[in-house]
Each structure stands twice: as C-alpha cells, then as structure tokens.
C-alpha cells in the first residue's frame, strides 16, 4: 500500500521526486520533467495496486518482481544519467531500498 500511495503522490506532485533528483529550477518543475515523473508515478501506482490486490501466490510474486525490476531500472538510469552527479548516490540508494523492500516481501507472497 505504501508503494502505491507514494507513487500517486509523485504523480500528483512531481516535485516530490524531481527535487531530490536535482531536476527542479528553484521550486519549479519543467513541463518535460513533470511528464516523465508523472509517468513513473503512474507506472509505480499501477504496480503497487497490483501488489495490494493480487492474491497470494504466483500473481503476487509477478507483481513484486515487476516492482523490483522497475526500481532496479530506475536505479540504473538515474544513477548513470542524472545531470546532478552529486544526487546520484542518494537517488540510487532510495530506488534500491524500494527494490530490496519489495524483494524481501516476496518471502510472504505464498503465505
């Protein structure tokens, strides 16, 4: 539920993700960044909702794997492409933390 809630929050308020990434101009988020962050938020909200609604077993494991893969991809892309190099380690750690939390929760996917 937490992952879906955070994802909706960044889709609605892209500054919540753009600022830590160094992708703002003061308090403003450029329209292009707003679109991309909104897309990330929508993707993660869909996956998070699938995680909440999926029955235990294979469906839940697939939803969790999708979230882990998405977060790992975010870590790779943000970690190598963010213009503000000093922000990369923090953003990578954040994305990998979400991935690890979701991977760990797979232990209970069948219970």
Question: What does this 3D model show about the protein?
Answer:
The chain has 111 residues and is mainly α. The chain has one domain (2-108). Helix content is 75%, strand content 4%. β1 and β2 (28-29) form a beta hairpin. The longest helix has 24 residues, at 58-81.
Notable traits:
mainly alpha, 75% helix, 111 residues, globular, two-stranded antiparallel ribbon
Average pLDDT score:
95
Element string (H = helix, E = strand):
HHEEHHH
Major β-sheet strand ordering: 1-2
Could you give a short account of the major beta sheet?
A: 2 strands, antiparallel
Total strands:
2
Q: What percent of residues are in strands?
A: under 5%
* Rounded Rg: 14 Å
- The helix count comes to 5
Outline, from the CA principal axes? globular
Structure class = mainly alpha
End-to-end distance, in Å? 18 Å
Low-confidence stretches: none
Assign a percent range to the helix content. over 70%
Number of domain units: 1
Question: What is the topological layout?
Answer:
Elements: H1 2-12, H2 15-21, E1 24-25, E2 28-29, H3 31-53, H4 58-81, H5 88-105
Antiparallel strand pairs: 1-2
């Amino acid at each position: 539920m937490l992952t879906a809630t955070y994802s909706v929050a960044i889709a609605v308020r892209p500054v919540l993700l753009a600022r830590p990434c160094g992708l703002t101009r003061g308090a403003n988020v450029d329209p292009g960044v707003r679109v991309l962050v909104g897309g990330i938020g929508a993707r993660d909200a869909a996956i998070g909702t699938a995680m909440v609604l999926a029955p235990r077993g294979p469906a839940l494991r697939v939803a969790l794997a999708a979230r882990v893969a998405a977060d790992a991809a975010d870590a790779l892309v943000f970690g190598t492409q963010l213009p503000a190099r000093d922000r990369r380690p923090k953003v990578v750690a954040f994305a990998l933390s979400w991935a690890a939390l979701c991977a760990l929760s797979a232990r209970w996917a069948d219970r």
